[in-house]
Amino acid sequence: MERPRTTPETARKAQASPPAQVTAKLTATAAEVAAMLGIAEGTFREKRARLTTEHGFPPRLPGCNAWSRPAVRRWIATNGGTYLPSDMHPLHTVDAGPLSLDALNPEASQLLADYGRKSA
Question: Which tens digits make up the pLDDT trace of 13-30?
Fold first, then answer.
């Protein structure tokens, strides 16, 4: 099969058209969550309820059979400490002051000192 020829006009049109917008997917299926956790989908489905009730894993989104991808990533990043953004976490209130990483993970401050920086 012969490839269509590119003419100067089609080349100009291709250069003038904006690139396609790529949007990040905000939800994850059970298979995708299992892959993020490094376990089989069946194992995730078996342990999901216990992960949610005993370990604070993000609940399934209402009205669909999916989870919030950012919430799952936060839960993994905090070693199961929270799936909530820092401004919504119960420890981050006006009365309690700013969220302390030590409250989520005792080693977090040492890791932060060695490898990271606090965001402003």
Answer: 666 655 555 567 889 999
